[in-house]
Amino acid sequence: MPNTEHAGAPAPAAVERVLTQLSPREKVGQLNQRLYGWQAVERAPRGGFRLTDRARAEIDRWGGLGALYGLFRADAWSGRSWADGIRPEERAEVAALVQDEVARAGRHRIGVLLSEEAPHGHQALGGTLLPTNLAVAAGWDPDSLTEAAAAVAAELAASGVHLALVSALDLLRDPRWGRAEECFGEDPLLAAELTRAVVTGMQGGPGGPRGAGSVAVVLKHLAAQGEAIGGRNGQSAVIGRRDLYELHLPSVRAAVEAGALGFMAAYNDIDGVPCCANRELLTGFLRAECGFDGIVMADGLAVDRLVAMAGSPTAAAVAALEAGVDLSLWDESFALLESAAAEDTRVAELVDAACRRVLALKHRLGLLPEDNAGAEGQAPPTGRERLEPAFRTTDRLSRRLARQSLVLLHNPDRLLPLAPRSLTKVVLAGPNAREVTAMLGDYVPPLPERSAVPLEHALRQALPHAEIVCPPGLPSQADLSGADVVILALGGTSHRAYDDGFAANGAVSGPASVATAGEGVDLADVSLPGGQDDLVAAVRARSDCPVVAVVIAGRPHVLTAVTDHADAVLWAGYPGPHGAEAISDALLGGCEPVGLLPFTAPRHPGAVPVRYNDRHSAAGVYRDAPDPVLFPFGFGLRYTSVGFDRLTTEVSGRSVRVEVDVTNPAPTEAEVITPLFAHRTGGAVLPRRRELLAFRRVTVPPRTRVTVAWDLPAERCFAEGATAAQARTDLYVMDLGTTIRPYATPLADTTQVVGPATQAGPH
User: Fold this and answer.
1) Which residues form the Glycoside hydrolase family 3 C-terminal domain (predicted)?
2) pTM
């Protein structure tokens, strides 16, 4: 795509020319995204596709369209499936049809932005899926995510899509929230670096989409949605400005630095101000402070929700527009801006400003008439020949991310890895033993047949010589007789059934028939659902052989009973369509789980939320749960030993250099995640108990020592408001610790080496 002006540059002349030619109604039409895309096209009686009457009416109303959401979406909410949805080979044809019809209907031949859900792969028939964000975060590997995001973008671009709606900005601050799986964990730095990776991969680099294989990203949700009281989706986040800036906005800054072209304003309010009406957030912080000049989209029906605050739909639309929202999503209120602008010149000016930003994005994406001079509508994408290699690349990277997402939580007697040749009978039980959908998470389309397998199938493939017994419910004594090991596939699922009820925005409404997580499935109790603790205890009581638990889940569950009764525990998140093979390989030694938890695992359901970077410890507070943390953030075991030693620092006036040696004594190479934590004291505010300053994932060759080094800004390493005399920061890498103070402060050698350590995480 040829248009790559910097996001902060003035609107190009082409945009201003088009803007001056638009009528007030046409301008407002560019700000609306009212249609559900799957309702915009239908199959024609003689083959091919045609626009529906509903779509034609909307296009005629505005003399064009600003954006169209979910043209290819297929899932339980849309109702689209392989029986009636748009297949991969049909996407280019349908996209070209829509673009041509929209261009023909308008006086100015402006194309329409096609926006699609792609939180971990395209939510369309044939869309290749990645592990969910929470699983990806356990791999601590931004480089792999950049590659995977680029592959997903290539698939979207080949389908004619312009905007990828991607979850990235929410922090997992409360495991009761059903959307925990969409978060990159609880730490702002880890989340920010993974967000940067998504933007870089999908957009092809700073400045916007580069080349035919990239798309613009709309990141959601801005901001602090993960902080909602009680984990209740879309409700109030009662936090101060400091926590907002320190925890929830670093990912936003990272995204702007990476060149993100869109953000989605969240449902929740922050101290009473809805994000869609929060001018301080959307204009003051995002535009003035960060220099962002892309578009802000409202979450689905979020502008209409402002009526409770503003008093009327028109007032709600004006409140969102004044705050900085440019593009609505399904709202009726934003369609009323034409009359509001006619009555108030200030509103008319705001409509112009928002329309200018939408048109500038369209210019970048080649959707203005001058971008396609002489073309008949929007040129169709190449289609199938571009989709096939994109599918293959995304699939390969999905396999890699699935392996990286596994975290070994418990293995005291080194039961894992199992020796495949020693296994003659394996009992596999638990609610996720036979369920492919348990691996996938929320926001997924129906998969093609044989594109993913359950854990039962993966184990049968890996152990063709062994008897695999997979009973429903609790294994009987006959099932367990002669077994070498019992594997329990535990956890939850975000699978949404086609007969579920859904709210107007697509969230599960009412009791979910299957799902125990996902949007609309917040929980008051984060114990394992469905009596799984009792299942583990009963299997332990009946079994004479070892018991291995695999937890497949999209939120931190309480695993206290599991660790008490199982001989080994592997956490797998929602690892995607290749999750079963990855889990099987890890259990049988085909790969080593080296991931680290991106969240704090609670010991008791009544002690949540508990986070590693809180300012106060929760230990010893609850009389009935004196030790509320089961596994800390950053925890993870390994099969093979890796040593950490020689933690050294060099402090200068403006920077701090930190080095640590990582030793791999094994005869095979080792993937090692190396996090650097800090406790900063001496400042003007109460310090957090620990903070992640930096991290690195490295490959250490066999029987080799490598040095991991970071050069960090001094202001990041010392407490806010600290004087040179008071400032002190304790640094930690696994079991190593050292203390630094600002430059020119005399210090003795404070390095403390607490032995070589296996990868486990902070204590």
Assistant:
1) 406-639
2) 0.93
